[in-house]
Amino acid sequence: MVKIFFTTDIHGSERCFKKFVNAGKFYNAQILILGGDITGKGFVPIVKMPNDYYKANYQGKDEIVSKSELPKLEEEIRFNGLYPYVTSEEELEVIEKSPEKRKEIFKFVIKHTLEEWMVLATERLKPLGIKIYVSPGNDDDPVVDDALLVSKYVVNPDMQVVEIFENVKMLSYGYSNPTPWNSPREKSEDEIYSDLKALAEKMDYNKFTIFNIHVPPYNTSLDIAPKLDKTLKPVIESGSVATENVGSKSVRKIIEEFQPDLGLHGHVHESAGNIKIGKTVCLNPGSEYSDGILRGVLINLDEKKKKFTYQFTMG
Question: What InterPro entries does this protein map onto (predicted)?
């Protein structure tokens, strides 16, 4: 038996990433897969003040800490999926006035933090022989691709078919269909279908096959999200938040056509669960990264018999 631990959508939470790395030893898993949306959604400027004090506006209030207390504040910010950025009063003025400057700094902290994560993962997992695969999702800036190259041990399988274990092939794909947020990695349904078909045709279906596709298939229990209005606020209908299916029609079509053994998905945090499309079992562990909770799924696989069991995890 081979054990695979899969998680997704940690959105920059350092607490969740460290739990992910530790999951290999904890669950006795030989393979770890992080399926996309690995980076945070913003950074927190921390202004250096006179007399070695630092000030940050964090979670709606001003925080003032001493130099000795600074590491604790930075850690708290990272654990909540944001990036601390120490700066000066002068640079802060530029940041506040210039969207381009904010974008430049955001890309810098993403790359710097992710490179540190990859080094940590290598140090922890390489001595244990635990394989690790980390791929981007639709929310991840292209700078992520360069950051993942800092370690030769960590594999970015995006847009590839790779053999992750003897007789186990995995296709990975991080793009999503269009979203209201115009995220960095989005494509039309036609483009997604074309990309996925080219990859799916490279798979050997005599072996155990996994489609590691960030966005879930359309019109299932795995892709139900709150319906949003034009201002991106939830739509209320009959006193409750209305929902809609937001997954990809092309992902569903490609699964129906090629029938892999297993589909691993994320993207829609609220829709943890499992479904079957034909013979394909599709899983979405969901995400609670903002609470520091790592949701995942542990897969126990007999690759020779092409049989597996799975268990959702939370911790």
Answer: Metallo-depent_PP-like
Asked whether the beta carbons of 140 and 36 are under 8 A apart, the reply is yes
**Dihedral pair phi/psi, residue 299, rounded to 5°:** -110, 125
Indicate the pairing of strand 31-34 with strand 2-7. parallel
Tell me, yes or no, whether 15 and 62 share the same domain: no
pLDDT digits (tens, 9 = 90+) for 4-14: 999 999 999 99
Distance CA 143, CA 165 (A): 28
User: How many C-beta atoms lie closer than 10 Å to residue 296's C-beta?
Assistant: 28
Counting other chains too, the contacts that 49-55 makes at CB distance below 8 Å and 24 or more residues apart are 54/86
The answer on 259 and 195 residing in a single domain is: yes
143 and 244 in a common domain:
yes
**Does residue 28 register a pLDDT over 90?**
yes
pLDDT digits (tens, 9 = 90+) for 84-94: 999 999 999 99
Specify the pTM: 0.96
Residues present in the chain in total:
315
